[in-house]
Amino acid sequence: MGLEYFRLRDRFDFSKNTLDIGNYLQWSRKSFLKHFFLRIFAIDASRWPEFYNRHLTYYLDKNTDGKEEFFFKKLWSLIETRLKTLVEKDIYESKNHVRDQQEIEHLKSFTEFLTSIDKWNSNETEEAIKVRLLTENQGLQNQLIERDKEIKLFRSKETTDKINIHKDSYLILVDLFLKLQELKLDDDKELVFARTQAVWMKMINNYFTEDHKEIKIETLKRYFPADKNKPTMGKHSPVPADKRIFNIVPAKRRS
User: Fold this and answer.
1) Domain of life of the organism in this record (predicted)?
2) Which of 49, 175, 189, 253 is geometrically suited to a Cys-Cys bond with 239, CB 3.0 to 4.6 A?
């Protein structure tokens, strides 16, 4: 019926603007729906949010395991059923056709409000739900197709081949990469720049091997401190002198 969902009017509550269900005297709870719609039709459309929040708060306070979704769907069901009954009624054959038409417009106004706050698609028909789910599924499939294309394009540009470095020589390459970062052009701008040292480590790990064995990131971290100017003692070390065997010097320009 809905008694547990909606706040009932207190006895001797003579307020003319009450949002609660029932009258101020004793009334039969069996006639709840009658009093419920009497209250709905007495409320101005501007008070729909106030009505909704008042009864939602009551429902949640009285039901510790209650959820707004349950309350919303109960309210929607009551309004939808009454509206459907009125719409299917031959209002022009009814003695109360003017009142019926007014009630239809009032309930439509309420359903518009409910639709605006519906987070659970309660107003969708079964067919509409199927169409929406199919559309969403198609959208996800299209996204997967696009991601698959991107992955294939990425892999097409990648290579499984790696440049092999002679045994016990990977630190020579590390030293050269460190020296590359120190090179500057005539305008004093850096020749190469990376925001983090991780780029250099990943490049060595991805594209080089030493004696056909992986050069691990953890091994490289010792030589690529996050802050080159302030390496952490104990965690970072300079390349040993016997591995710093090459220098990069500018070529002499032809006059």
Assistant:
1) Bacteria
2) 175
Q: Give per-residue burial for 63-86: e unless 16+ CB within 10 Å, then b.
A: eeeeeeeebbebbbebbbebbeeb
Domain ranges of the chain: 29-123, 124-158, 163-243
Q: Compute the distance between CA of residue 198 and CA of residue 165 in angstroms, rounded to an integer.
A: 20
Q: What's the pTM value of the predicted model, to 2 decimals?
A: 0.50
CA distance 121 to 123: 5
Distance of CA 61 to the CA centre of its chain: 29
The 10s digit of each residue's pLDDT in 208-228 is: 999 999 999 999 999 998 777
Q: Please write the tens of the pLDDT for every residue from 225-247.
A: 877 777 666 678 889 999 999 99
Q: How far is CA 5 from CA 47, 49, 56, 60, in A?
A: 18, 16, 8, 9
- Cite the beta strand spans of the chain per DSSP E: 163-165, 208-210, 213-214
CA dihedral over 122, 123, 126, 130, signed as positive or negative: negative
CA distance 96 to 162: 87
